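Example record for the data management plan.
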Amino acid sequence: MEDFKKSTVYQIYPKSFADSRGNGTGDLKGVISKLDYLKELGIDYIWMTPFFLSPQKDNGYDVADYYRIDPSYGTMEDFDELVKEAAKREISLMLDMVFNHTSSRHEWFQKALAGDEKYKNYYIFKRGKGPGIPPTNWESKFGGNAWEYVEALDEYYLHLFDISQPDLNWDNEEVRKEMQKVILFWMGKGVKGFRFDVVNLISKEAFEDDYEGDGRKFYTDGPNIHKYLRELNEKTFGKENGILTVGEMSSTSMENCYQYAGEDGKEFSMVFSFHHLKVDFMGNEKWVLVPYDFAKLKQILFDWQTNMAKNHAWNAVFWCNHDQPRVVSRFGDTGKYWKESAKMLATVIHCLRGTPYIYQGEELGMTNAEFQDISKYRDVESLNHFQILQEKGLNETQAYQILQVHSRDNSRTPMQWSEEDQAGFTKGKPWIEVNENYKKINASQQLKDPDSIFHYYKKLVSLRKEYDVIAYGDFEALDVKNPSVMAYRRTYKGETLVAASNFYGKEAVWNPETDLKDHQYLLGNYSGPLPEKVTVLRPYETRLYYKGRIVAIN
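Corresponding structural encoding:
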């Protein structure tokens, strides 16, 4: 069986992780300084968001040079040291490849703007439909039209994201070869994993107006997507055993993911899908305030678990990343049941079929920052939508309420290491403010407390290594219609694991659909004796029951 099924990946957003230089921005040496902490947690891979040369219009997802480290993060020597020091602790590096677009500052795009036909063909330039009318009515994911006019060329270029992020033309074989060279370069540096940003958008289908939506049907999971990914695999990471890959799949379909993450290994090891993180949207609209739909959350997670397994494909399982709000603020409780709900949410994800991802600070129960002043926000998407929401008729207070729930900056506040100034993240002024609750929520305290959220995550990471049923087991949904409880069973070669989790701040009753008398109570988030009735779950309670080999519970 593949090791990645027993592995856990830890995501670092370097800018906000640890600052070794006191300039307010996290850096590579800062990551090196915290490797012992990550070793203690027990993780196997560090996925790092981009630290390549970038003007930082989209926090590094606008790459100006795929081969250079941005000086704000350090040097190539620092990176080499990070790979070496991580390897000493049996931790591998996974890099973030932004291959759908580059920065407009990239040398290729600058040559394209100068009229060089070779490099124009690296991007997607089109004539407008008429004076001042873009080629299509597609919307950028960051707001506004997805085409930008270049007067000198009398053409528009496509940017599905920020105006400074022109889309690459993957139909051009030369572009695909450039991307292959990038992967091979970093593999040569000892990198053992790659995460591919919005990679299912690289094959565009047709450049037509979308009269029903924002254009995504013309560029999502396009006609050549599987061909291009198989080619990338074959020419690069597929040549070497043990390279972990994950594709971030924007608005994808499950059917495509059977191929993206199929066990034949021709494309990726696994996929990120986001359908379960749109249950507090209204349709596809993120910038609204609606309570999350628990029944829908459960249905989506269960559907992906069941169908990916049926089609021999593998999930990445996660709640959090640098683009998502903090999960304890989103689906848990930041008040009375903060600790219980954070542990419950961890249990749900870490016992599913799939490779779990922990986002920095998630293992501490870090919460949304909930800034109430636009000057504290840094995220281009949030700043754009603060204006857009007011143009749509909302007042400032209503716009702030939405940002406090949905802004990507909620996950980008500095890692809370200690009670020291700036949460021990920096000696300087941080690039974005530290969450005010850092004296209550920080790593230093939790490392000393055996009942902390950190130690609970550590236990879950080790259980996956210890129990084959968690890594390899089949998945079966239990008590599906329960309005408060998410429950499921995993089975593998005579082992059974039953997980039950109450998502609400009041008692809930559940139906295990099996006799648990011959199961051992393996783990839970409450100390002391269990309720007399096994079917009663306390507020935000989670429990794991195990049947198989005899285990000593410490």
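Summary line stored alongside the record: The chain has three domains: 7-102+174-355, 107-158, 471-547.
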